[in-house]
Design a protein that fits this description.
4 copies of one chain form a homotetramer.
Chain A: E1 2-6, E2 9-11, E3 16-18, E4 20-24, E5 27-32, E6 39-42, E7 47-50, E8 52-57, E9 62-63, E10 66-67, H1 72-82, E11 84-91, H2 99-111, E12 117-124, H3 129-140, E13 146-150, H4 161-174, E14 177-181, H5 185-197, H6 204-208, H7 212-229, E15 233-235, H8 241-251, E16 257-259, H9 263-267, H10 278-283, H11 293-305, H12 320-323, H13 343-352, H14 359-373, E17 391-395, E18 400-401, E19 420-421, E20 424-430, E21 433-437, H15 459-470
Parallel strand pairs in A: 1-6, 2-7, 8-11, 11-12, 12-13, 13-14, 14-15, 15-16
Antiparallel strand pairs in A: 1-4, 2-3, 4-5, 7-17, 9-10, 17-20, 18-19, 20-21
Helix pairs in contact in A: 3-4, 4-7, 7-8
The complex binds zinc ion (8 copies).
The site of one zinc ion has 4 residues of chain A, from loops.
Chain lengths: 487, 487, 487, 487
């Protein structure tokens, strides 16, 4: 049974044009004017865009002694309600350190719950021969082409420079892409101790102990290591000018570095932590913390300039009760905020409606760019014949105030609460199924989502490898006559 | 009669995939595996890419007391032989100053000669009410959405800052895009006089009198004026780090500025002017002149980083005899070099084969990006159903030494002479017609090319206008009580 | 009769140490512990610093149809009261265009009024052979080694790029230093017309029509022209990051460029123009206008980093009544504010007391640096044997609220009104004379001040000339065999 | 018995003037024209400058399994012969880890040998409570106000980020200045292993394994850590644009960071390592390695712009035989080159004679700046009454080819061999004693040198502490009503 999305303006990362979109089963089969199908989905007055991809979520993640409260079911349904049809979750090795077992765990957790498609980034939280070996299977057998490295969370997830180098080199060999959480974990810990020692225990201490310089430093370091290892690099949650500057500087040397700001950092600022209400401030605790407005301006410019490519959420939602674990000590407040459901609408409202971004750039940074980086384009991230029918009918006339009472996320608050967004998905399709329809009492369809396998050796990886091979240092050949005979 | 391009790998600015391309008449109608058509064009082992677009040529241009020797016929045929299926020529007002008459002139010159499609940029070489008025017709009636401004060539083409501002503002109103040749004409003239006065009359004086700082300054100035006028800006022939830095700096503030390096500046350096053979050096005289290798590295990085978007040629070819007009005085050597025929192959060889660029980036910077900037995408610059069948079957196995003896350009030398390129167009199609087939003794088909009309108000223009309108300074309302009663 | 300044801490640009200072007549003769002299000046608990030098004043300047209200008498007395013992005023050619006559005029105006020493910068407001010729006499006979160029005030003082180049080259020959007021006068005028046309006539329009980009552009352009002419450059009233960035970029290429922020731009911001009281806002109208706090941070960092060298005032004070000339049109509000009297105290309070500057840096940027740049160090700007006894006993324990009622300036308002400064001169000595003593009812001593002659060819000028001579482009020698025989 | 230095031009960091200098005992007592004394030192036609200070030497240092061959006697005599009158050597803790014992060791080694004055930097090569405690004594009892940290030499001298932070904080408390050797030791080691594994064992491998990015990264990291700890920072042997860029970026944020290029990096380039003669190349092995000419240009510009302050040598001289310890493995070639004797003459020749530096800047970067940074100005680094009579009569007419045969260093080669320098010390005075006289067969005077004690809390340290204290984050005071009652 076919569906035709009629009457809308298709917007891709390239262009916008009036056309209908015909869907057969899970795929887009035709884009043209005046198409017909068994079922009509009304897009009159709306945009027809590729479903959003959020490449940075932590659903049900065990972290800081608790587990992120958003489930794969609630998270993927909230995503759909917000116009996002795929998310990439971070898979963390368990106590046995095995990558493959961790994937099995994540599959077990997600399989029966997910309402839309997912994939995983694999975290490298230590280094040994087993990790080295398993990485090949992760890439080649499990279809995961990205590995995450934490430069912070010392004593827990953090890896050292030589471990990063080893893992990055392994990524280069396997055609995979390393990701980093860029903050200097040593110095974060030192500043945490300093502020605690001074009796500064509230959520504002979280922000003070993770200043922009600490993020910029780590970004800069990761870039150098990736360059030495000969591999592209993707820096998650770029929150500040310092990290962004490091990225720009690298790119201007021809290095292939990507940067991902979060919708939170684009729209919320550090004054949130100074709120007189502890719970209000604690809800906003995430790493990196929100920054001041100068940093926001830097991030926005990066999106239009192309030095930053992707807008994500780092959705890691903890309940009010969980946040209270850090009541006397900000370092034990579970780190994370939500955003999965609001990412698209918030970016449209503050980006497209203000003229900072074109509609095409909106599509690029919410979907197409990350699909290319993850090497799943145009299966995902595109409106083109043959692509998965992950499509959103995006209605720029629906205005809505963000409210916990109406959200699909199961968290008991929302960092965007009270803000008005000026667009919403009228319909969200995941591989041809309508999984969200505005005002139609849509319900979650757990278990219908699939795991998306991603092939290695994206085009940028291949180009960089070629360049590095051609430019590798050469041995100087010396005549034995010109070498002394020894000590 | 349909044609099917079979067995190749389609490469667009987005992606690469194995597919056949079906062409009906002038248009691409389908892209899929296993297509068939009336005629088969063999793409086995080759890439199938959008025809190149060279947005910067000066064919038969009256300049510096002579006329560029490359004709519309020879130029467009050379283009086709090199894989370029569209070029945008600069249309200069004549003595009457009328823009519309100039377009008529250019049409008259080009119409019966062009072998592939063309469009024009309109030059603004002075400012008055008539120019102001004609600009609307140029855009709305003649389909030209770009206006060129020369900041150099004092006493001839050069315009002053207030004229640029006026024209840029007019562009903003009309949804057109201003272009600039960025060199400080005042200081160029001063340095020319200085070197001539010192008896330094050879072609090296051309390079000395146009140092990078002079280009960077003008680029920086044009960017400020465009920002003040609220319009995007396109800077032609970006040859040096200084101009590139100004562009990067602007983009990082959210300004919408584009930069166009030339294939010559990417691959040739200033030492060419120091050649002991006068004629050799004079052939390379163009503005801006070639730079040193540090500048080349900057330009290459800009292409992969996205701070530069387009590779062009500024093809303005003068014969050896014409060059000798400046035998005793470098300032009278007609400025210009060729490159139309070699742009694609040189960029592939030095860019893609070295890993500096991916194949997709190659397509972006030779074709798709400029099509988007000129607002004719995806009619041009794309391999997609509905697009013009301007297609090149790009064969990465044909190696060739650049030689005057085999070139299609009618100029008696070639600045790339003796260099080996490692790819060539196997077939070049212009709106479905094969206009070049390697080794098949293709002949020019003058008069088959068409003028391409370009609509105003590209997406970036609209976004910028929205931003500027929202951020325009606001009047402070003052109570009459707080305003003194006068002097 | 000798004087000994006893018990203080001498602070120079180099260092701080406990010592007495012995003055004989007009000169410092000894610095050591336990000195004695005929008269004792008590410096117990205070710093002993070189008298401030304000290199940027406009006393009694005819401008915008009126004349700056601060006289040479009131201005130099206000200076003394604030710890400034020398100022450099801008000498503007009159209708006859003669530089030498202008100096005579300025001498006539100042001679009988000045309470402390002065010098002049000579303005170049047009270019012809007479100006070229007179410049030599200005430097060699009149002892003026600086020439000011206005890139703004179109139709009045503004010069074009080729005129600047010509004058800068002349400066290079004469060993003089060019100065620029850096704003793009063309675009300022365009924006003025735009805002007026929109009915935006209030003082805020002044700020809107002179945005930071316009200043940055001009600074960048002047730097390029100075580089082409082979001469150092001094940019007056650097008010924003854009101009500062251009300076830093130039310096990092080895260019010799100096930047002078004003005390106003370091401490006041653009919100002043949004004041609901017209007169309040109009009093702050000066060019460039005050900027936002990000720009302030840039300027402060420049002072400690050494990329900016001098803090001045651009003291050009117009009365409330004069300001009302622009009641209906901000472009006719006379441009200028005061600051001569508060410069030292404001900088101490906001710079040294906050730790942004060391006491030594305070001395450097208020006195020693400009003395070196003007090539009159250590006659001025130093506490060293042989130097002029221009000395301030600077008391960091006197706190004072800036108030019109107590100021020595004759203007009827003060842009720092109501602010508290935490240091004041206890005594100000000019060539050995006490011209100001806190709380002692000091009176102006008009006519005691002298004109300070400044020699050409400062050390940086000589070094730059040497570098430029060694690096001048060289002619390529070509065998006649390799030069064609002509057209 | 007094000495008068007659007929010369005194050059300081501030200015140049004709004057005689009168020395009584160890001190300068007067500077004026026409002085007389018991003994006349002829300075006719020469400059009279402060003795050079080389703040970076490793004499007789145990390192990499051997001991630097230059002794305190030969080193200090070579220094004197080159116009350097003070050097600061690096004191490394021995196996017991005690800082105080290390100082005793160094004293024992140096005391009877030194011909001129010395001081030490204390190295922090690990962190524990004893080090923390001893640091106070090092500063307050031993007069050492600088602590060196190695970010490279993993497994030997290297410290981790948290150790650096702890030590930097301790420096802040004590008013001391941390120094860093900035290279990422982890990545250096990885690259060393990589190249060795590829069979690339020659000296060029040393350069390949320590690319500029690795230095830039470490510099950037150290700067962040210093900023977090609230202390100024001095980066030794800045060899490349990357490290210099990090310094400039920091300074432009108001951070107090100093950079020290070496004379070797200013004048020699990486091609030295590609020499076909193994021994030639091995002699040049030092860390960081020599860089290409673009980096040299960056360093030179930094000296004139003020973003780099000091020119040193890192004199650590190993004999040919010692170098052959790394015959089969570049990682075991002892790192180090000489330069102590040539620093002044090479910098004069390539800096002042070319116009890159003024004579005053030459004095600043060879002597005065480091004296200020080390808080011993004007006892050292100045020509002023009361200063130590460490004076050089600098003769710009003595041209000399650098040659092992004539050098005073006892090393069997010289990295500047064959180069011509165009100035030499005619006389070198150390605290009033002539310790070198050109052409007079001067002999070392071992044991006459003294250890120079340096007080803590230099002016920049105090200012920074004040700024940090004023800008420390503040606790948000929350009403108990607004804090939840617990989990
Ligand atoms: Zn993270
Ligand atoms: Zn995360
Ligand atoms: Zn041009
Ligand atoms: Zn052109
Ligand atoms: Zn001015
Ligand atoms: Zn002024
Ligand atoms: Zn070192
Ligand atoms: Zn060292």
């Amino acid at each position: 049974m076919s569906k035709v999305i009629k009457g809308g303006t298709v917007v891709t990362a390239d262009r916008s044009w009036r056309a209908d979109v015909l869907v057969e089963g899970e795929k887009i089969v035709e884009i043209a004017e005046n198409l017909s199908g068994d079922e009509v989905i009304d897009a009159e007055g709306a945009y027809v865009i590729p479903g959003g991809i959020d490449p940075h979520t932590h659903l049900e993640m065990p972290f800081m002694g608790t587990t992120a409260a958003e489930t794969f079911e609630s998270g993927t349904f909230a995503a759909a309600a917000g116009g996002t049809t795929m998310l990439v979750d971070f898979c963390l090795p368990g106590e046995d350190g095995s990558l493959l077992n961790a994937i099995d765990d994540w599959d077990r957790k997600s399989r029966d719950q997910i309402c839309c498609d997912v994939s995983y980034h694999m975290a490298i939280t230590g280094w040994d021969e087993n990790v080295f070996n398993e990485m090949a299977d992760v890439v080649n057998k499990r279809g995961i082409n990205t590995f995450k490295h934490f430069m912070a969370y010392k004593g827990a997830l953090m890896v050292e420079d030589d471990e990063m180098y080893a893992s990055f080199k392994r990524c280069a060999e396997l055609g995979a892409l390393p990701l980093v959480h860029a903050e200097n974990g040593d110095i974060v810990q030192e500043l945490q101790q300093k502020y605690l020692a001074e009796g500064l225990t509230g959520p504002e201490g979280h922000a003070y102990s993770r200043p922009p310089e600490i993020e910029g430093e780590a970004a800069n370091r990761a870039i150098m290591i990736a360059d030495a290892a000969g591999v592209p690099l993707y820096i998650v949650h770029v929150s500040c000018e310092q990290a962004h500057e490091a990225i720009r500087r690298a790119r201007q040397k021809g290095m292939r570095v990507y940067g991902e700001p979060l919708i939170q950092h684009l729209t919320l600022d550090e004054s949130e932590y100074f709120n007189k209400d502890w719970q209000y401030a604690a809800r906003r605790v995430m790493s990196p913390p929100f920054r001041n407005k100068e940093h926001q301006a830097s991030l926005w410019a990066g999106l239009s300039a192309g030095s930053l490519q992707v807008v994500a959420t780092d959705h890691a939602a903890f309940s009010d009760e969980q946040k209270r674990l850090g009541l006397d000590n900000f370092t034990t407040i579970p780190n994370g905020t939500g955003g999965l459901e609001e990412r698209m609408a918030m970016l449209w409202t503050t980006g497209v409606e203000t003229g900072r971004l074109t509609p095409e750039e909106f599509v690029a940074v919410t979907s197409s760019n990350i699909a290319k980086i993850l090497n799943i384009y145009p299966m995902k991230g595109a409106i083109t014949p043959g692509a998965d029918a992950d499509i959103v009918v995006w209605d720029p006339t629906i205005s809505k105030e963000v409210a916990v009472s109406t959200q699909k996320s199961i968290i008991d608050y929302n960092v965007f609460e009270g803000m008005t967004v000026t667009a919403q998905p009228r319909f969200t399709l995941s591989r041809g199924d309508v999984i969200w329809a505005w005002g139609k009492n849509s319900q979650p369809q757990p278990g219908r989502g699939k795991f998306v396998r991603r092939p290695a050796f994206a085009s940028a990886s291949k180009a960089l490898s070629k360049w590095k091979a051609l430019n590798t240092p050469r041995k100087i050949e010396r005549d034995p006559m010109n070498i002394p005979s020894g000590v």
